[in-house]
Amino acid sequence: MTAAPLTDREISLVRTSLTVVAPQATEMTVYFYAILFARYPEVRGLFPENMDVQRDRLLRGLLRIIDLVDDVDNLVRFCSRLGRDHRKFGALDAHYPAVGECLVASLARFAGTAWNDEVAAAWTHAYTVAAQVMIDAADDDTRLRPASWEAQIIRHEHRGNGIAEITVQPDQPFPFVAGQYVSVETPWYPRTWRHYSPAHSPRADHTLTFHVRAVHRGQVSNALVHHAAPGHRVRLGPPQGDMTLAAAGDRDLLFVAGGTGLAPIRALIEEAAVSGMRRYADLFVGARTAEELYGLDDMLRLAQRHHWLTVRAAVSHESIPGQQGTLPQVLREFGPWDRHEAFLCGPPDMVTSGVRTLLHQGTPLAHIHHDPLDTPVLTAPLTPPRPDQEIDQL
Ligand SMILES: Cc1cc2nc3c(=O)[nH]c(=O)nc-3n(C[C@H](O)[C@H](O)[C@H](O)COP(=O)(O)OP(=O)(O)OC[C@H]3O[C@@H](n4cnc5c(N)ncnc54)[C@H](O)[C@@H]3O)c2cc1C
Ligand code: HEM
Question: Which of 50, 158, 186, 196 to mutate to test the pocket of ligand 1 (most atoms within 8 A of CB)?
Answer without folding.
Answer: 196
